[in-house]
Structure prediction request, 54 residues.
Amino acid sequence: MSTVIENLLARKQKLVEQLDQAQAVEERDKIEHQLEQINTALDFLDRPEPKDGR
Prediction:
């Protein structure tokens, strides 16, 4: 699973760099939406698994 997290973090870094350079509002909105999706995925993957198997 660490590979998935590493890939998400790498993608997030690229998007942050793109966001710094983005001029158009639509482009910034699109990048911000993708960042939100990545953050949600990272939050989900970072949750500890329940001990009772649920």
In short: The mean pLDDT is 91.
